[in-house]
Amino acid sequence: MRFAALACSTMLAFTVGVSAAPPAVAAPAVAARHAYVVDSHGTVHFGKRETARVPVASLVKVMTAYVVLREAKLTDVVTVTAADVRYAAKGGAATAGLRTGERLTVRDLLYALMLPSGADAANALARTYGPGKPAFVAKMNSAARRMGLGDTRYTNADGMPTPRDGGYSTAVDQARLAQYALDIPVFKTVVSRPTHKVTKTALHQAHTWTNTNKLLGRADGAIGVKTGYTRKAGFCLLFAAEQRGTRVVGVLLGDSDERRFKTAERLLEHAAGEIVIG
Does the annotation count 61 as an active-site position? Predict the structure, then answer.
């Protein structure tokens, strides 16, 4: 599937800025080490050490999903291997509970990747659509360069600490990546879904995957995007919402677990108060 045309509108949104009205809501205090909030017009609503290069944990999987959507058909069927299952278990990563020998569509594996943050799904997809994980990571880095993410480098498809902390990125680059990804309707649908159920068939077991993003159903207009955690990265959150007819994307890196969602809600309220209508 090719989405090159979709990227054009996003690039314009980041190169053409608009003037913000005087803030109607005071900027909240943000305890996260890094933070950034921007809307689809290019108006920046908050920034804190937003250009520092740091590990971003499972936010890496946003790029994994983006590359898969460029390389695969949603109806493609991928067979889960023992190596996929072992990889997630060995690293102590979050998994989607996939089992050796299961055959799942790319569409279902994207839900397994993005909702419970399955490293097993990430491994299966990267292995298949590199083909091979090194080639897949190279595609991730190539996509980052095309997007202009000059402070982003990937070393794996899941953000796990090995090798080299999954690479690095910045809050600014992660927000830009989210805008590109959310321009793809399938991606937006996946990350906005609170749960996804897969019925048992002859090809695979039944699965129910729950979205780890607590903003869904809690913040007005929330549309995902991704949570993440490693010891070095801290708790991370890449979030988005439709506010007053405008898409707002925010990033929190190096935060604590529950606080990141409360902070994201306050940042979205702040951005909504600054958005100019008309």
Answer: yes
